[in-house]
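Minutes, project huddle
Topic: does the predicted pose make sense with carboxymethyldethia coenzyme *A bound?
PN asked that the exact inputs be recorded in the minutes so nobody has to dig through chat later. Recorded below.
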Amino acid sequence: MIKKVDHIGIAVKSLECTLPFYTDVLMLPLLGIEEVETQLVRVAFLQAGGTKLELLEPTSNESAIAKFIEKRGEGIHHVALGVESIKERISEMREKGIRMIDEEPRTGAGGANIAFMHPKSSSGVLFELCEKKGLKG
Ligand code: CMX
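Predicted holo structure (tokens), as shared on screen:
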């Protein structure tokens, strides 16, 4: 049911301060920068071979990313798994006893349908199910 690792989310305090490491040192192509108002984040996507890195900068102290950085510091925040038929995948997860943060898909960066599992249900890793409809594939 999992097609690939769609992207890895990395919490950062500032996109401007962090991006040069990814674009100039690692020389990863920058695919775009976007604000996701519903999630209180500004994100930058970088192509990293067959997957992507998503840098997440909080736009408010109420953002999940701001809280994460305050508690744990900058670093890897989530792993996004590419799926098809996300509603069915959410139902399967729930049948298997997984606690979903999102019981219904919602819209994330790039217009993708996304749903997070609670990290307490998945051995401490925050997994995102991610169904892409558009260009970012
Ligand atoms: N990875 C692993 N564990 C995490 C975590 C993460 N990213 N964020 C929090 N946790 C841990 C906490 O440390 C806590 O563990 P302990 O009790 O052992 O300390 C546990 O999860 C639960 O914490 P909580 O107090 O119940 O909840 P929080 O207020 O810390 O919120 C979470 C955690 C995952 C429920 C919340 O961040 C959330 O709903 N995330 C989904 C949405 C999101 O992350 N949006 C930003 C990205 C948007 C995008 O990609 O577009």
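Observations noted during the meeting:
- DSSP finds three helices and eight strands in the chain.
- Residues 15-25 form the longest helix (11 residues).
No decisions taken; revisit at the next huddle.
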